[in-house]
User: What shape does this take?
Amino acid sequence: MAKIEPAMRSPNHRTKVNRAMSKEKLTAEELQEQYEQGIRYFAYKNLSGEDFQGLYIPGVKFSHSNLNDVNFTGANLEGLSIVECGSIDGTIFDGANLTHSDIYRTTATYADFSNADLRYSTFSRMTFDSANFYRANLSFCRTTEQTSFRHCDFSQAILKYANFLEVGFEGNCIFTDVDFEGCLFRYSAEGSNYFNFCKNKDPEDMRHYFVPNISEDCLEKAYILKPHSNLSHADFSQIKCLANEVGTGGLDKLDLSYANLSHANLSLADLSNTHLRNTKLTKIPPMRFNNINLNCANLSHTLLLRIYIYGGSLKQVKLDFCQIIATSIKDTDFSGSSLRYASFKNSHLRNVSFRDCQFEHTDFTNTYIYGDAQIPPEVDLSQAHLLPADAPYPDPLFG
Assistant: This one.
């Protein structure tokens, strides 16, 4: 995507200038001076058109401010926060350090993120229109609900292990030579990759795609949550904030029937950016799967550590050698599944059914089983806790 001159970046420039008049003007020199005095939070400021090239201002926070047509080329903005600033139209972040940034409820039309470092950043309720992500690094970033990319250029961008569960792609987005390794997408609960804006028409430019509408070969290394998907050896522990993807559609009502998850790591195990000194590991939220459909899936040799599965359907699943450790499973049907050498050690199983399952050396050590799980009498449950269906959970759940 070619560089966009300031005059081209703001189609409604006059309207934006009028709005900027109501905010206090802040020049680059004034911002640098106040930053050096220890000020990090700037609200209701007008920075439009200012040149902040190469500035070192990590941790700066902008709220309800005018950031249109600002030049942040090469600036160090690590930990940047942009909250409800309306828009960052025409703003340039070329080569800027935006790691661990948080941009919330802001539109970005013709914004330039080319060559920017956006690793571990979060985009919440964002609309990117004709934005440039050429050679940008978005590894380990996260997008939340109501975030969309329209006519954006991702050429040669890096999206390794990015969490794109809550994102939509519209119009003509470009994905030339993109690194999608471990990038996480999902189909809708209805099993579709898109929905139409117009109820009575189906033109492609009116579609909202959940997964980029490109060749499957280009997405070979991406993790796409859909029926029959091949997720063998997938490492979900590298993807950030999966523990929070509940109640917003992220991991709810997944259909992974006939998917291959053999040898996959579905655990929230990556603590590389957690300060363990002041962290209680028992307080780290687990990943949650509500109403997940894994019927006939292959989960052999899969590791599920500290997972919540509620209302799941795991009929005829291959769970041989699967390690289901310290996991809470409720209202879930395992009927007809293969559980050879599987382990449910330290897990809680409430209102589950193992009817017609195949057991061989299945480990129920310190497993809490609430009610009749329809486990055959020949299966060794001597190390399990067999409790009434309505027995309370221990506190803490996983001591």
In short: Residues 216 and 222 are 10 Å apart (CA to CA). The chain has three helices and 25 strands.
